[in-house]
Each structure stands twice: as C-alpha cells, then as structure tokens.
C-alpha cells in the first residue's frame, strides 16, 4: 500500500533557495543596521538625476524650456485652475497670463525696452508683483527684485548696482520713491502702479494696463537662447557690506522651482506664501515651485502669526513655507483649541532651531518639516529628505560626485581659511565645524554679482586643494556628523541673520556714522533670549554728546526695523586687531550686562520709540522675556 507521501510527493525547493533567502534577510539586516538611509538617499538621488536628465534632454533636442514657458503652457492646458488666491480673490492661470500680457504690451509700446535690458521692481506682496515680473520676462527683460524694507542710500545703491533702464514701484511704496527720486539716475524711467501721480516725470501704469491688449507679445522677445543667461537679480547682503545683486540664470530658477516637487508636493497641493516675493524662497521655490507642479498658491500681503492657521484652514492649505523665525512666531502665539485641525502636510524652508522644530511638531501635528540649505547666489544645495531634526540635509559618495563640496578649516581671528605649509586648505574631521565651499565647474557654475566684479572674485577660493581648482565660498560654517547629516553652524564675517534676513554690520554702522556727533561705530551681534540682535559700540566726536533722539530718528528712517541696533554702548576708545580691523570678540563676549560693563549702555525701547538708559532692572526683564523684542 502506497503512503500519502508516495501518492502526493511534496515539491522540494532547490537547495540554493534557503541560502538565498538567508542571504537576503542578512543583507536587509545589514542595510538597516549600517546603511539605514540607503533607500531614502537612493529615492532622493534618483529624483535629482531624473530632473537633470529631463533638462538635458530638452537641451539636446535644441529646446530651451524656462519656467515662463512652463507657465504659458499651463495657462493653455488648465486655464480655469486657480493659480493665485489673494485676499479671497481667485486669479486663474489664464487671468495671470492675460494680465501679464497686458503689462508686456504697455512696456512694448511705451517703455522702449530692449531684450536683455534690466528693470528694477519695488513692490510688496500682491498679484501685480507677479504680473509685472511675468510681463517683463515675456519681453526678455532681466528683473531685479528690490527689498522694500531697504531705504534711502542703501536702496539707491541697489538700484545703481544693477543699472536698470526702468524702475516699477508699487502703489503702496510711493513714500519710499519720494525719498530716492531726487537722487535717482536721470536715465532711469520710473513707473508707478497707480492711475495718476503728482511726481514729475513719473509714468502711471494702471490706466495703461486697462487700455492694453491681452494678446501675447512676439515669442522671439521672450525666448531664451541659453539656460545660463541671466533672468533675475535677487539682492543678498553676502558676508560683508551693502546688498549685492546676485545674478540668477534660467537654470537656477528651474532648480529652485524643483524644490517643492523634490520634497513630494504635487499638482493637487495648495501652497501658502507669506514670505516677501523679493526673496528667492518665495519667488523661486514658492511661485516657481507652484508652476513646476501646476498647483495653486495662496499669497499673503504680510506674514501674520495670529491669522496664519485660520488662513490655512480657510483655503485648505497643504504646503507652507517658513523661515526659522516664522516657526518661532507661530509657537509664541497663545495656545488655541483645534490647532492640529488643518490639512497642512509639508513645511518647506530653512533656519528653524531644534527646540522650535520639536515644539512646532508637538503643537501643530504630524507635518513633515522639509529643511533645506542654499544661498541665493550659490551653486550648492542640501535638502533634508529624511526629516532628521536639526539637519539641513545629507550627503553621500554619489551626491558629492554630482555636487562636489567640502568643509575646510577656518581661522576666526584672521577671518580666512587655514592653509598648510604647502599652501593648500585642509578639510575638517567629521563633527568639526568647517567653512562650506563648493566646486565651480561647467555643471555647477557661479554667476556672481551684477556690476561688481570685485565682490564676485571675492566669493571665489582658488588653489584650494590643487593647482587650478576654484571653489565658491558660501561664508557659512557647517558640521557633518558621522551619519553624514549636515548642520548649519554659523555665518562668518560681519553678517547676522535677523527675522529671516541676512544683515551686514557694515551697512548698519554706515548709517550710524552719518550722524555729526559719531566718530566711529562698531556693530556686532549679541545674544538675547531666543535670537541674536545687533549692538553698536560708539565713539563720539570731541566736544559732542550723544543725542539719543537724533540717533533713534536716524536708525528707524534709514534702516529696516530688523537691522536697528537694540543696544548702544558708548566707549572712549575703539579696540582694533593687529590688522587694523575693529575688534568685536570681546564686545560680543561681554554682551549688554550693565552689572559688568562700566560704559554707558542704552536700549531701544520700541514702546517709547526711543533709546533709553539700560538699567539692571530692564536688563533682567529682557532676560526673563518680560520685555518682548
């Protein structure tokens, strides 16, 4: 009699299958243990490569596709889809396309603009900022985004540095225009976003837009010959001095616009933009990113912490943009019920501190924080695609292959990279802070600053590791840990980050020394609760006294609010370094404590709109947070 096994023999697997299965399990365990981020890194790298290949394919086919080209195609493909929502009003893709056509037609017939000419744009956050930007781009113009917080002499410097043929000013910034108009170059044609004006030799734009045609201008005006050609100037304070006009190419715009997509945003997302449009985060990552996705964005005139979440709920926002300070402001708001009752799933930005990052997630729910690093004019970018708290991104062998960079040793006293006896720079070890530099080559070029060859050359480091190599000096100190996560450590030189803006101490001191009783001003950063603020050491001219009323009037008139020194310290003698530079280290260490500093100290009391004597009581109230800064 046959057994069951004889009648129905079991199919035995080949002898190699158990071994293979064990091998796969072992490899999986090894990967989890020693390479925990392998798949996340691979997915991110493939995304980056796919985007690069797509752009390269267009180039090989003889096509130059810019972000404006993509927008025009979307206006044809999805004309009725909302592109902008501003103060409750919806502007569809077709609406924005047609209004930008009107503006292009106005300047085509009235502005005498040539392709490649520069136009400076001084406007706040409003739909017409984008209409003017796109309209000028359709004429093949380079648009310079001016920071509307910058005033007087600094603003005139910004305008002259990019040599515009025309200046377009928003209707709510006529006061700023009035300040600079007498000193503006006579060959700059000025247009204001109003129907009438009392300014002599100033053109109005709104009335002409209404009468203009919606027809597109000739395509040859807007078509780009090269993705490396200039399309924007975005101002940055860099590491020292007055703002500089960073040259932005079509390629940089495309790279910036791919950021939201790389982090996982889709065409179905609604993006909330509260950052100023003159900033690359709002214009390139925000508006450009919205176009790259074919999505919708909600534009806010000005960031409001109290209205932020109600706006997100009202407009079903799914993606928000931030800077570190923005997250802190939101966390500082009084706790309300239902704070997690929203649809926001991604928060994209940079500069958020570890403690604020954690508090933000605990309080507002499971939002993926997408921290990134990238200088406006730089040729390197990092993206934290894993969500590691505090990190600006990750690196690995393959990433460095495509985007070569290094962290090198830096001498803080001499304010320059350390070179060995052979003259070469030296890399820091993992866990040590080093100056971030990125290699300049054909694939990762540095376009420099408009009208400033000296500053462009100053940002480049030559002969770094070998003869003939060139690197972009970011001016940022970074740390790479043993898991290859990167962390922002600090800025070098004389620039500090305040309320999302990089502010040069030299810009502040230049305004202060304009006063007739100031001999010298040394501006530096001091730590106050939760941030770094400005303090200024002052040397008075002989036979003069400190006029606090005049000092207050000077800084609030000529400086953005975030750049006004919070503290003043009057000294008899200014300390200098061995190379005749102002000594800041001891001043920074001493801070603003009236108990240990014998020099007279003063505090900018915004409630009194004046500088007042800094007493021990006021000092304690600042440290305890009773006085809001």
TrEMBL record:
Residues 75-395 form the AMP-dependent synthetase/ligase domain. It comes from Columba livia (Rock dove). This is Long-chain-fatty-acid--CoA ligase. GO terms for cellular component: endoplasmic reticulum membrane; plasma membrane. PANTHER family: LONG-CHAIN FATTY ACID TRANSPORT PROTEIN, LONG-CHAIN FATTY ACID TRANSPORT PROTEIN 6. It comes from the Eukaryota. The keyword Transmembrane helix applies. GO terms for molecular function: long-chain fatty acid transmembrane transporter activity; long-chain fatty acid-CoA ligase activity; nucleotide binding. InterPro entries: AMP-binding_CS (IPR020845), AMP-dep_synth/lig_dom (IPR000873), ANL_N_sf (IPR042099). GO terms for biological process: long-chain fatty acid import into cell. Belongs to the ATP-dependent AMP-binding enzyme family. It catalyses: tetracosanoate + ATP + CoA = tetracosanoyl-CoA + AMP + diphosphate; a very long-chain fatty acid + ATP + CoA = a very long-chain fatty acyl-CoA + AMP + diphosphate. Keywords: Ligase, Lipid metabolism, Membrane, Nucleotide-binding, Transmembrane, Transmembrane helix, Transport.
